[in-house]
Amino acid sequence: MRIRIKSFLSVVVLLFAALVTTGCWNRIELNEIAITSATGIDWDGENWIVSYQVVIPAAISSVTGGSGGTGPKSPIIVYSTKGKTIRDAIMHSFSESPRKLFFAHNRVVVIGEKAMRKGVNELIDVYFRNSGSRETVSVLATPGTSRRVLEQFMQLQAISGAGMKEIILSEMKNTSILPNVPVYQLAMEITGDAKSAVVPEIFVSGSEDTSSLDSFSSTSIPSKLKLGRLAILKNDQMIGWMSRKESLGAAYLRDSVQQSFVVVPCEDQEGKKGFDTVQILKSKTKIIPKLQGGQLSFKADVDVTGTLMESNCAQDLFKPGVIQSLEKEGEVQIIAMMQEAWKKGQELQVDLFGAAEKTHRKYPKQWKEWSNSWDEVFAKSPLEAKVKFRMARMGLSNKSFQYLLDKKEK
User: Fold this and answer.
1) What is the DSSP code string of 77-95?
2) pLDDT at 194
3) Which numeric CATH code is attached to 244-410?
4) Taking every annotated instance into account, which residue ranges of this chain make up the domain Spore germination GerAC-like C-terminal (predicted)?
């Protein structure tokens, strides 16, 4: 009897729990949200301007080759709102859009130069304070307005927000000139010992915009989105730009080179000059602080492995002297890039290379004195760069085609 009563009570409790418990109390239907693929941040001197690149799923198939309808339709729509704060601007979107903005699939945030120079601390606060935004979103800077970048279409990519993300990932993987900088990494660097950070540039190249699908009616387009320089931030404000050559030098010093390339001069036995193109397969950098006689200096040891991709000099690559010359020229090129980047950082009095963290760990007592004036200390600290360049492969042929051609003519 007692077992039956217990079983009956258990059933009653389960039924009651099923009645009072709702399965999807906070559900959001797909037809209630506007999926945002890219966000833009601008500053007009008084207000923040936030732009949204919203995906139109029904129009994507027409752009990528689907049938039906009256022709291709734009897969995205861009609009902007304004407010005293970034969240204030976002809240104004409810008065313009019939759907709630959904930022979980946002791929990039593009920041205009005026907003970058004002400071990015408010943007970082928004991303870390709100659960709807992901800290893995890539940050890009543009010299104009971010809205113009968001309005551009891209070749081979229907949604340009996703395309911008793929461009920066491809650049980082294959050339390492510019890094991919997620929001969380930007926050970590700004709050680090050096209080500095970098953000890659994206801009509209060409004379006209590609904000209309009519631009793709021919085999060439008037302009395109393109990666450029490196924006330099001190504390949370942008203070200048670094060229692509300087950016690659900074990548070596930051130990962030995955793959890259270097073009070195060459010369054959008859004095004819040309160039060799070497692909960098591996790179490892160690920056070592040194303190002698009260003077702080740094030593950068770089190990590089490469393979020859192209040669237009009449060279016999079997000869050890030719390989050694190639390696030596590669070392000279990389050292020059690193020294140029270091000099640029010292001119701006901003440490982009992680030197502050390494100095803090090695000289904790002296760091208490240096930390308050690190920018000045860094600006007076010389760099000694040493590169060990090793050619792992010379390609499928140990002789250049020009060498074989010249030998046949003789």
Assistant:
1) EEEEEEESSHHHHHHGGGG
2) 93
3) 3.30.300.210
4) 230-395
pLDDT in tens, 87-113: 999 999 888 888 888 888 899 999 999
Q: Tell me the H-state helices in 21-157.
A: 57-63, 86-91, 113-118, 121-129, 146-150
pTM score of the predicted model: 0.86
pLDDT of residue 67: 47
More confident residue, 77 or 10: 77
CA–CA separation, 288 vs 390, rounded Å? 22
Question: Where, residue-wise, is CATH 3.30.300.210 in the chain?
Answer: 244-410
DSSP β-bridge partners for residue 385: 300
Q: Tell me which residue of 354, 339, 353 sits closest to 384, measured CA to CA.
A: 339
200 CB neighbour count, 10 Å cutoff: 23
**Distance (Å, rounded) from C-alpha 173 to C-alpha 165?**
12
Give yes or no for a contact between 278 and 330, defined as CB atoms under 8 angstroms apart: yes
- Rank 6-10, 192-196, 212-216 by mean pLDDT and report only the highest: 192-196
How many separate helices (H) and strands (E) can be counted in the chain?
Answer: 14, 13
**Is residue 163 within 8 Å of residue 224, measured between CB atoms?**
no
- Residue 189 CA to residue 181 CA, distance in Å, equals 10
Residue 4 — very low, low, confident or very high, per pLDDT cuts 50/70/90? low
